Amino acid sequence: MPAKAAKSFLPALCLTFMLATPASGRPAVVKVDGFGYLHNRELKQSLTLLLDNGKVPEQFDAGYIEDACLVLNSDLVEAGYFKAKVRARWIDTNGQHGDVLVDADLSRPLPRPLAVTRLRLQAVPGVRAVVAEVKLEGLTAIPAKDAEAFFRPSAGWFTPDEARAWSRARSRRAAAQLRDTLRAEGYAEAKVDLLETEPDEKSGAVRLEVRVSQGPRWRVTGWRAEVAGGGEIPGGELAELQGATWSHAKALDLAHTVRRRYHELGYAEVRASWSAEPAEIAPGATERGVVAVARVQPGPLIRIGEVHFLGAHKTKPELLSSRAKLEKGAPYDPKRIDEARLRLSHLGVFRRIEASEEATADPGVHDVLFQMTEEAGWAASWLIGYGSYEQLRGKAELNRRNLWGLAHRDQIEFSQSFKATQGEYRYTVPTLFNDTVEGSTRFYGLRREEPAFLRVEYGAGLELTRAVPWLDARGNTGLGYELLRADAVSLGAINQETAVMALHLGLTRDKRDNPIRPRNGYRWSVQTEFAMPELGSEVRYQRVELAYSWHRQLGTERWVHCGVSQGLVGGGGNIPLNKIFFPGGESSIRGYPEGEAARHDAAGRLVGVRGALLFNLELEQQITGRWTAVIFSDTLGTVTKASDWPCDEVLSSAG
């Protein structure tokens, strides 16, 4: 066969192989290509929405293929490909091949009639349009950089073109977002106009011109209430209203405030809305006075009737009633109903709880209905992970819920790694002392190879936890009995086996936006342990651990993280080796292996420290998309005697 004929024959052969005609009676086949592996699958799934009842027929007609091409072209245009096309290739019921480029305007309709059994839709994106420059006119209310980010967002030092892709729809949405931002700042008459623009045919670069007409800022100079049936809004004046800037968000907040006041009295069906009556404005003035008007329809006064718990087959009704704390005849306050729902959900035995109301024969009384779905009586889970010191590790858990129908629960946990073996059993009662305290008892055992010794611990303890509302924190106290042993130790004269009875006190406040990857907020904690012979302990010591972390965003692509922690143990020379500090490792000073930042004796052996003061500082910079880079500096101060606090040796690391 001549070389030229072979070149034309092979692609046709490949296409025939991919689009081989299926046997009669089988569903037609469609394949989407060129959008990326995962997105291909998503788009293929979305094309089923074009089918009747989502059922794939034996053949596709021209109308379906055109609709499918329009869906795919819309996706490409939204991603910035302004000259996008979709290549449709098919085999019909007669075995004939077809190949057509379909643009977003469907300028070339498909031939009719058409009955296709094999269809392949491939993206032909072309040049991507990217916003290269944004020119703003008339904007003074917010920084130009913040306004530009609506049209040309930044995703780090290396912002991908995908983030700054241009399409008319995206630009219109950005203009609407800028307008809404200005109106939220009180510029109720703000307008944002986009000048018509076209991307560069070769490079795809787009230069946007945005004209902003801010208008005057609306400020409240007075207010009045129009209550159906007469009367005034309960609770008196709205102090936060006078002199405030007016916006749609402000109107919603005020409506919520008014509804809450009526809800507390039992007017559960109250309707409230706010509007503004603008005054005339002098030429050149930057603010316009408005009168805020509240329109309220209180509705009927409603009281709570019976409270029903539906679907709670295993949980005792007395527990549910005491937890809900809803009294018959009390005002029907939706907030109190929702608080009751949350208290019930905190029992941890329900997968879902929905609250509703039901009218009774008395129009002023509504019953409360809690529709509940209980969790399974037990659940098992396991996980596998890797750590720099313990290396491969695994953990298995078995949890039982709602024991005795009283929401009690217990947990058995076992973990194993190359360095440690640990097991624990915990029994928890969530409803002590009028449902304000959670109590638990714990039995555990641990065997772990530390860098300096073999740690062996087992014991039992009682713990109580409760919220501390005046500090917006959570406190815990408990009593624990432990048998501590340090085997294979060559660290000099150290008590290697000890029975300890200790009192534990702790307090934690967490105001971070995310417990795993915090970007804003702070967290502080205090944990103390007091071992006393008066309680039956063989030794006396005091152990304190303090920690504080702070996180703050700097601009839109940068974050700073600061942390300080202090561990200190005192009480003489017979403190168990298990209770002194061996800093170093993943959660300590970075750059030092597990335990290797502790002190060494003259022979080079690890001896631990009585106090460890650690400072962490991190600067996180977004590089591109979800990727960030972190520069850190850690400083550790240690002491071998508590009396030498804060430190007599300092270590530092950076990276």
Describe the structure.
Strand 14 and strand 15 form a beta hairpin. With 655 residues, the chain is an alpha+beta fold. The longest helix has 18 residues, at 248-265. The strands form 5 sheets. It has a 14-stranded antiparallel β-sheet, with no helix packed on it. Strands 1-4-2-3 form a 4-stranded mixed β-sheet. The protein has helices at 3-18, 37-47, 62-78, 144-151, 168-184, 248-265, 317-324, 334-345, and strands spanning 29-33, 85-92, 97-103, 116-124, 130-137, 191-194, 205-213, 217-227, 271-278, 287-297, 303-310, 350-359, 365-374, 378-387, 391-403, 408-417, 420-432, 437-449, 454-468, 473-487, 497-510, 521-531, 541-554, 558-570, 611-624, 627-639, 649-654.
Describe the structure concisely for a colleague.
Helices cover 16% and strands 43% of the residues. It contains eight helices and 27 strands. Mean pLDDT is 87; it is low at 1-23.
Instruction: State which percent range the strand residues make up.
Output: 35-45%
Helices, by number, come to 8
Identify the overall geometry: globular
Number of strands: 27
Radius of gyration, whole Å: 34 Å
Low-confidence blocks of residues: 1-23
- Span of the ends, CA to CA: 64 Å
How are the strands of the largest sheet arranged?
14-15-16-17-18-19-20-21-22-23-24-25-26-27
Q: Portion of residues in helices?
A: 10-25%
How much is the average pLDDT? 87
Structural class: alpha+beta
**Main sheet makeup:** 14 strands, antiparallel
